[in-house]
Amino acid sequence: MLEELAKxxxxxxxxxxxxxxxxxxxxLIDLRKIHETNGPKILWVFIILFVxxxxxxxYFIVGRKQS
Length: 67
Hints:
- By secondary structure, this protein is an all-alpha fold.
- The protein has one domain.
- 73% of the residues lie in helices and 0% in strands.
- The chain is built from four helices and no strands.
- It has helices at 2-6, 10-33, 41-50, 54-63.
- The longest helix has 24 residues, at 10-33.
- The radius of gyration is 15 Å and the shape is elongated.
């Protein structure tokens, strides 16, 4: 198992993981501050947390209600 972990190209994967974490944090903070969304807030929490990189992006494109 350690040999398999050593074969993973961490130089490529680590920045993607970092971007994903930053987007999730920013989206969750924004979701907490905003009063109205397109759909229930709890649904957006689950989408942001469990749909990897596309969840936070979908929230910023579709989930925020434009006034």
